[in-house]
Amino acid sequence: MKVLVVEDEFRLADAIARGLRREGIAVDVAGDGDLALEKASITPYDVIVLDRDLPRVHGDDVCQTLRDGGSASRILMLTASGTIEDRVSGLNLGADDYLPKPFAFLELMARVRALGRRHAVALSLVLERRGVRLDAARHEVSRDGSPIVLTPKELAVLEALLGADGTVVSPEALLDQVWDEHVDPFTNVVRVTVMTLRKKLGSPPLIETVIGAGYQIA
């Protein structure tokens, strides 16, 4: 899952981002509405945690712009006001869920995961290729009927490769889809993750390395 946190209070944004990353989620952060719209136009986030009271471009306008532009990202709107009228207003703008401040991180995490599952179901419930089956909603993987336990990053890389339907996925594309914007572009984390994923998927090897291009499950 990849999440964008849009919050102008730096400490809160940092706390949310660190908490989500501890759960294996890739997180980008934007401190205002303009930057949020710029990032969302480039990256297809699964979930956007959106503060309503943003400077420059208000959270309502961010939400409306995303929906008018056809964004499939699920939006969890945060606000200091928890009245029924405000909740209804936010949902009518196109938000998928609404969480008043202050909130417990465990509740935020549960809501983000729930929205992420809904996004996965909307995109594709199950991916299958060459005996490998990935249930995106349940985060379950098997090969020829035998379950395989993967880390969140390994599962996300496998989902990207299966979703490519046999085409080559570059290391840069995997970095963009699976890791957040702070990852070192020269890191070997993609190669190492693919290597461990290969081992867990077993024999015969499924993931092929296309020299100079990337990886594929042909």
Tell me what you see in this structure.
- The protein is about 45% helix and about 20% strand.
- Helix 2 packs parallel to helix 3 (about 60-70) and helix 6 crosses helix 8 (about 190-200).
- The protein is an alpha/beta fold and about 220 residues long.
- It is elongated, with a radius of gyration of 18 Å.
- The protein contains eight helices and eleven strands.
- It has helices spanning about 10-20, 35-40, 60-70, 85-90, 105-125, 150-165, 170-180, 190-200, and strands spanning about 1-5, 25-30, 45-50, 75-80, 95-100, 125-130, 130-135, 140-145, 145-150, 210, 215.
- It folds into two domains: about 1-120, Response regulator (Rossmann fold, 3-Layer(aba) Sandwich); about 125-215, Winged helix-like DNA-binding domain superfamily/Winged helix DNA-binding domain (Arc Repressor Mutant, subunit A, Orthogonal Bundle).
- The longest helix has 19 residues, at about 105-125.
Topology (SSEs and partners):
Layout (H helix, E strand, L loop, with lengths): L1 E5 L3 H13 L3 E5 L2 H10 L4 E5 L7 H10 L5 E6 L4 H9 L4 E4 L4 H19 L2 E4 L2 E4 L4 E4 L2 E3 L3 H12 L7 H8 L10 H13 L6 E3 L3 E3 L2
Parallel strand pairs: 1-2, 1-3, 3-4, 4-5
Antiparallel strand pairs: 6-7, 7-8, 8-9, 10-11
Helix pairs in contact: 2-3, 6-8
The CATH topology of the largest domain is Rossmann fold
| Beta-strand segment tally | 11
Read across the widest sheet, the strand sequence of neighbours is 2-1-3-4-5
Please write the CATH class name of the largest domain. Answer: Alpha Beta
N-to-C terminal Cα separation, in Å? 24 Å
Query: Low-confidence parts lasting 5 or more residues at pLDDT below 50?
Result: none
State which percent range the strand residues make up: 15-25%
